[in-house]
């Protein structure tokens, strides 16, 4: 089943006088059955969260005609702008030397000193001097280039946008990004980057859009990440393995996608604090446990809420009826049980409600009016495609508890076996010295 996430507009208000057009965050196409597709399939239009190749490419092509991004000035070393463009030339040529494959010849015109004419490189007036031209953006999306990110890219401190989605860049993220204090959008999705979450991302004061999905990042998601003033955050399809930190409630993001990681842990009740900003949240398939808190109804701006394919249980809170903006609701493949609250199916904008493969026992008649609904494999009497009565009875007689802990406590050491009764073959027991254990 497909559903489309509502586009979110991000206005690129860049520092001072950088002239950058309005930047829409991509439309996100989710196909819940396609999360297991291979990397090669992810680049097609049917891939999950298919941002790559949507509005970013359109914006990129549109802005090439804008005077602010279509400078063809050749640099002079004697002028301030010339120094910046000379540095950009040095950086881009050093970067190109790391490319081991450029199958579509995307960077074939990266020759000569006119860096503003390079494909995928965009120039604009410098933020501190409108009469000086500098490299403001790089967009190599879908170029399928193999290579790495060299330290020489530190010669591009005026970067506001860096889009490298759907390539084969690998290795760690170098620290040079910390010099890019104006970096507004960073898209490294669908590459081969690996290692722990790059701490350099936490030191980018202008960052609003961070997309690192479909890579091989692992380990802990740092709590500080959710203190950044981001608008959109995509962490899905990596190898992160720590519970979501309690600081998640501090984040002002409107779009949060953390799907397909091995986070485990309890459902973060603190997410309810994001009600003023959160528009789309996808926590699919990350091993969440426990129950949805009553406070979840505070997400009254959310249009998309997806917690499918976890280990959640309990009844769906009546308070979800306060999520008046909700259009897409997916709680499938969990252990929810009981009755669907009337308040959920009465939501005025709800178009898609998926609660398949749970243990729901009753749904109100209002649910039948929802445009796109999936209630298969539950415990609904007299409905087709439901669980067997035996399975339902076994589960509902002992439903799981809402009690949840982040990780199980360590097992206590086993108790020693009792000493055997004394015999003539036992050594004499000496006071103060314990008997030898079996």
Automatic annotation (TrEMBL):
Residues spanning the signal sequence: 1-29
Question: Which residue ranges are recorded for the region named Disordered?
Answer: 31-80, 402-438
Q: Which species expresses this protein natively?
A: Chenopodium quinoa (Quinoa)
PANTHER family membership? LEUCINE-RICH REPEAT EXTENSIN-LIKE PROTEIN 3-RELATED, LEUCINE-RICH REPEAT EXTENSIN-LIKE PROTEIN 6
Protein location: Membrane; Secreted, Cell wall
Single Gene Ontology BP annotation: cell wall organization
Start-end of Pro residues biased regions: 407-423
Q: Which UniProt keywords apply?
A: Cell wall, Cell wall biogenesis/degradation, Glycoprotein, Hydroxylation, Leucine-rich repeat, Membrane, Repeat, Secreted, Signal
A Pfam family: LRRNT_2
Query: Which InterPro entries has this protein been placed in?
Result: Leu-rich_rpt, LRR_dom_sf, LRR_extensin-like_regulator, LRR_N_plant-typ
Q: What is the lineage of its organism?
A: Eukaryota, Viridiplantae, Streptophyta, Embryophyta, Tracheophyta
Give the UniProt entry's GO cellular component terms. Answer: membrane
Q: Where is the composition biased (Low complexity)?
A: 31-79
> What protein am I looking at?
Cell wall hydroxyproline-rich glycoprotein
Residue ranges constituting the Leucine-rich repeat-containing N-terminal plant-type domain according to the UniProt record:
90-123
């Amino acid at each position: 089943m497909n559903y489309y996430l509502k586009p979110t507009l991000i206005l690129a208000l860049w520092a001072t006088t950088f002239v950058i057009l309005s930047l829409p965050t991509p439309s996100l196409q989710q196909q819940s059955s396609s999360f297991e597709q291979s990397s090669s399939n992810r680049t097609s239009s049917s891939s999950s969260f298919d941002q790559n190749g949507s509005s970013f490419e359109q914006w990129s092509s549109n802005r090439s005609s804008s005077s602010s991004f279509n400078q063809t000035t050749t640099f002079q070393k004697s002028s301030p702008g010339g120094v910046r463009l000379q540095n950009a030339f040095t950086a881009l040529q050093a970067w190109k030397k790391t490319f081991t494959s450029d199958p579509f010849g995307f960077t074939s015109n990266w020759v000569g000193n006119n860096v503003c004419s390079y494909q995928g490189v965009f120039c604009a007036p410098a933020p501190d001097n409108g009469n000086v031209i500098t490299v403001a953006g790089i967009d190599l999306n879908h170029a399928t280039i193999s290579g790495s990110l060299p330290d020489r890219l530190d010669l591009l401190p005026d970067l506001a946008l860096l889009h490298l989605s759907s390539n084969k860049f690998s290795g760690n993220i170098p620290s040079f990004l910390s010099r890019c204090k104006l970096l507004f959008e960073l898209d490294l999705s669908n590459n081969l980057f690996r290692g722990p979450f790059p701490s350099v991302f936490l030191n980018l004061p202008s960052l609003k859009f961070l997309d690192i999905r479909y890579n091989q990042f692992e380990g802990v998601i740092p709590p500080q990440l959710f203190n950044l003033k981001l608008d959109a955050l995509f962490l899905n399809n990596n190898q992160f393995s720590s519970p979501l930190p309690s600081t998640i409630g501090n984040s002002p993001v409107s779009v949060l996608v953390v799907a397909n990681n091995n986070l485990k842990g309890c459902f973060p009740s603190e997410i309810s604090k994001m009600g003023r900003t959160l528009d789309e949240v996808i926590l699919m398939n990350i091993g969440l446990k426990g129950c949805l808190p009553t406070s979840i109804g505070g997400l009254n701006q959310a249009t998309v809420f997806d917690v499918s394919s976890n280990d959640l249980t309990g009844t769906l809170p009546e308070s979800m009826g306060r999520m008046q903006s909700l259009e897409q609701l997916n709680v499938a493949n969990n252990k929810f049980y009981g009755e669907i609250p009337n308040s959920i199916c009465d939501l005025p904008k709800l178009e898609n409600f998926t609660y398949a493969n749970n243990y729901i026992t009753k749904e109100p008649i209002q649910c039948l009016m929802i445009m796109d609904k999936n209630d298969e494999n539950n415990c609904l009497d007299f409905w087709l495609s439901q669980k067997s009565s035996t399975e339902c009875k076994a589960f509902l007689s002992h439903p799981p508890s809402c009690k949840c802990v982040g990780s199980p406590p360590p097992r206590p050491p086993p108790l020693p076996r009792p000493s055997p009764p004394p015999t003539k073959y036992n050594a004499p027991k000496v006071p103060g010295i314990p008997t030898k254990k079996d």
